[in-house]
Write the structure tokens for this entry.
Amino acid sequence: MTVFYIPQDTTALALGADKVAEALLDAGSQRNQSIELVRNGSRGLFWLEPLLEVDTDRGRIAFGPVSAQDIACILDSLSTDPSSHPLYLGVVDDIPYLASQQRLTFARAGRGDPLSLENYIGLNGYQGLHNALQITDQQIVDQVRESGLRGRGGAAFPAGIKWQTVLDSPSDQKYIVCNADEGDSGTFADRLLMEADPYQLIEGITIAGLAVGATQGYIYLRSEYPLAHSLLNKAIAKARRAGYLGADIQGSGKTFNLEVRLGAGAYICGEETALLESLEGKRGVVRAKPPLPAVEGLFGKPTVVNNVLTLAAVCTVLEQGAEAYKDFGTGNSRGTLAIQLAGNIKRGGLIELAFGTTLREVVEDYGQGTYSGRPIRAIQVGGPLGAFMPESQWDTPLDYEAFTAVEAMLGHGGIVVFDDTVDMSEQAQFSMQFCAIESCGKCTPCRIGAVRGVEVIERIVANQDRDNNIILLRDLCDTMEYGSLCAMGGMTAYPVRSALDHFAEDFQRSGPDKAGDN
Amino acid sequence: MVKDNNNIDSTVLKSIVDQLKDLPGALLPILHAIQSEAGYIPDDSVPIIATALNLSRAEVHGVISFYHDFKTVPTGAHRVQICRAEACQSMGSRQLEAHAKRALAVEFGDTTADGRITLEAVYCLGNCACSPSVRIDDSIHGRVDQSGFDQLIADIEGGEG
């Protein structure tokens, strides 16, 4: 019996993993070869998907990217010399892209069947919860605070301080809300985690519940992730049957219930207060703060709202201790960052590293340049509200403060690479257009400003009174930044301004301005 | 997969609403359930939902119209979504989008004349390392170029015989 692994992960499936699996099982039965196929999660080496792994006496070896036609040849090579096959990658853990990472949150990703609770527990799963059940709620919060863990959703607020506020807010009911509305382009770390290691998220949410005294949790998941939806629901049901959710968790007398709720295609619902409105069954309109959700959150009750990766990281903190987690990172950015390398890139994927690596190292060493083979021109970090960075900024280390210092944003860690065919005036206009489409409509600078922004950029590009319209656009960016209620309108200014500042020539393509003579 | 979208049985509608109405924040789960059954949210369902949740019809309508996912008219048998977000743009999704509109002879939000396909824009499918991405119903496809798109559409047609 030989054990094979082919991921069931959105990207692997998008590249044909099911056809490869089918071809493998067919070939096995034709050859009368006994094959066990595990549908694991993805390792996040997306440039190698579909990645086929095989257990051998030399360890788990890998081939990729594999198509259905390669199967016969790979099976032949296994009985002779696998390393002779052109798609042979060696022992999977030794692939440099993976071996050089510092995987904490994604240590289990791709090792086995994401729904196997036995597999999860065998790889130190539920150790964090076990430890949390031995200590007081305040001690759990202390551990999280001491670890230096900051919210991974984008705002980077210290998780321990948020938890302390909820713990200190007396209430008959409190909630844990997991923000799984991962809407930023170029990000897929939440999805990968939910598809490859869903129990880690469930465990982290449960620990949060114990820490602050909440008995009900919700995962607010975007509807664009149908596979994660189905896997999470199955994992929650299995965890409940095994006594990791529900009443009397592992004989502790503590209760915690968890439910997945589906979003409905609104980017703004990634903003925590809009998300809470949506969970309450309303339009996803942003709330004014204060009151903070930690004091008056879901249904007016004290609520922890954390991103998927923040809650998952809590498992590592509770399992290995605050100090061990804090040892990773730099300055006030502690622990590891899930970097998502995407867009026009040769080797895109998930790269988990301690904070502090430079953008250039990630894009050049891991990414190996563009997919198109052309020079890189601009890199957008942090999603649609993040700045476009020119080459002069690529040596910025990936840490929250260093990015803020160059008027950029690390956000959720998504990196989108553009080659030299990009027209940055089109990208700036898209940023405004996206804000116009996705604005919740509550505040004027965002709702109207974004529409006007699209129009002003159109005039600039068409060379209508260009100089004055550029002044107007910058003024509009300031109004949106300082006058909007949340980051949607407030940060749309960042990509637009960065395009104007660093790629000014793209706004001049129809010749020098003749009308604006001042 | 082809659904008769025009007449969702009102007893089915009522039973969906009855089953879900006691959930905290029940409106989105109810709307998802109705759309998954009927393919869209029929006008008739608004007063039923409003009564069950003690909301005004305007409030229910406001929620339906806020979210991109909820449709108020019947859609095609298949939903084809093209990602328009930045990672896909960096890999040529603007050209793919133009090609898809030409090939299907529709704009975003429209359904083909034969009622088979509704074409939609989407902003990120989480497949950003292998762009451009296209979602057809619940399956996502990566590195979709123009001929790849044509093949996916042909597979839909072929699949229906």
In short: Residues 1-6 of chain B have pLDDT under 50 and may be disordered.
